[in-house]
Write a structure and sequence with these properties.
The chain is of the alpha/beta class. The chain folds into 2 domains: 121 residues, Response regulator (Rossmann fold, 3-Layer(aba) Sandwich), CATH 3.40.50; 106 residues, LytTr DNA-binding domain (OB fold (Dihydrolipoamide Acetyltransferase, E2P), Beta Barrel). It is 34% helix and 31% strand. Helix 1 packs across helix 5. The relative contact order is 0.10.
């Protein structure tokens, strides 16, 4: 997940970065800092951010002005404003702001925002599957698990299954941070499709039960607990 923080106070930037990194240490986060709106806008020409945390009260170009320009370059990027003045809220609707936060940033508030973004990202993301007969587009969240079968991959969804060419490691990379976990050299499962883990097996919502590699049952349970705490609830 790529995050930009823009504030003219370097001290706050350090505090904000530490807070974000402390909330989700398991996430693959890229955080860029900017002390002015123009510097952030220049960077947007090359980088797409998932989230921009933007101080409203900055000299030269305030946060609302910066946000208007952000919307010209990045229509889908979520914007969170930093302000202590509620009167800015009406202007925030103009640029479709996600939230308003006060300084210093509270870990609980940041956690809520990151969980929301993860959930939305998982629901919205699709992958293309090239089968022998056609190309199928499916939502990541609909997949129960991937199974390696020699040089093929069996993709089992909530309602169907597909066989495609490829490597399990490629799908593991594509689904990183989207609730998937490698339980076995032959299986990559979606943790949201697990009903229980017992006696070295992962029981899935579609009725299948899959073997967990020896020595990985503990880490699979830990991954499932983390998923439930951070995403499912």
């Amino acid at each position: 997940m790529k995050i930009a923080i823009c504030d003219d106070q370097p001290k706050f930037l350090v505090q904000a970065m530490a807070t974000i990194e402390n909330v989700h240490k398991s996430l693959d986060l890229i955080i860029d800092e900017f002390t002015s709106g123009p510097a952030l806008l220049a960077r947007l020409e090359d980088v797409n951010y998932d989230l921009i945390i933007l101080d409203i009260e900055m000299p030269d170009m305030n946060g609302i002005q910066v946000a208007r320009n952000i919307r010209k370059l990045a229509k889908d990027t979520e914007i969170v404003f930093l302000t202590s003045h509620i009167e800015y809220a009406l202007e925030g609707y103009e640029v479709n702001a996600l939230r308003y936060l006060t300084k210093p940033i509270q870990e609980k508030k940041i956690e809520e925002i990151l969980l929301y973004l993860l959930d939305q990202k998982s629901k919205a993301k699709k992958i293309l599957l090239q089968t022998k007969t056609d190309v199928v587009s499916i939502h990541i969240s609909d997949i129960c698990y991937f199974e390696s079968q020699n040089h093929d991959i069996r993709v089992v969804t909530k309602t169907n299954e597909y066989v495609v060419r490829g490597k399990l490691s490629d799908y593991e990379t594509e689904c990183k941070n989207l609730g998937f976990f490698r339980i076995h050299r032959g299986y990559l499962i979606h943790l949201g499709s697990v009903t229980r883990i017992k006696d070295g097996m992962a029981y899935m919502t579609n009725g299948d039960f899959l073997p967990i590699s020896r020595g990985k049952e503990k880490s699979t349970k830990e991954a499932l607990h983390l998923y439930i705490q951070e995403v499912a609830l």
